[in-house]
Amino acid sequence: MRLEICVDFTRELRRVPPRILIGSHLDTVPNAGAFDGILGVVLAIALVESLHGLKLPFGMEVVGFSEEEGVRFGVPFIGSRALVGSRR
Q1: Bridge partners of 72?
Q2: Please, what's the largest Cα pairwise distance for the chain?
Q3: Are the C-beta atoms of 58 and 17 separated by less than 8 Å?
Q4: Alpha carbons 59 and 55: distance in angstroms, whole number
């Protein structure tokens, strides 16, 4: 398995081959569900690992969003909004 790690704060628009993004958010809130937060990121990594280098017709990116719950800054979905280029 070959994974490249990068932190992309701006998600600049660029030409990229077809890809699928899988993952979740890293933050959670008190009394959240049993599968809230980082488990989605861990499972996404496990899925990629289970492919054992299988060549797919698209790329895969594992994403881990921060501040999706909106607890820290009072604005939810900051990571998701940055990914799609939305300020609202």
Answers
A1: none
A2: 41
A3: yes
A4: 9
pLDDT in tens, 11-63: 555 556 788 889 888 777 777 777 777 888 899 999 999 999 898 988 888 88
Place of tokens 């699928």: 20
DSSP state, residue 58: S
User: In the numeric block, which tokens belong to residue 79?
Assistant: 């990571």
C-alpha span between 71 and 6 (Å, rounded): 25
pLDDT in tens, 54-88: 989 888 888 888 777 777 778 888 778 877 777 66
Other C-beta atoms lying within 10 Å of the C-beta of residue 37:
19
Overall residue count recorded for the chain in this entry:
88
Lookup result for tokens 């081959």: 17
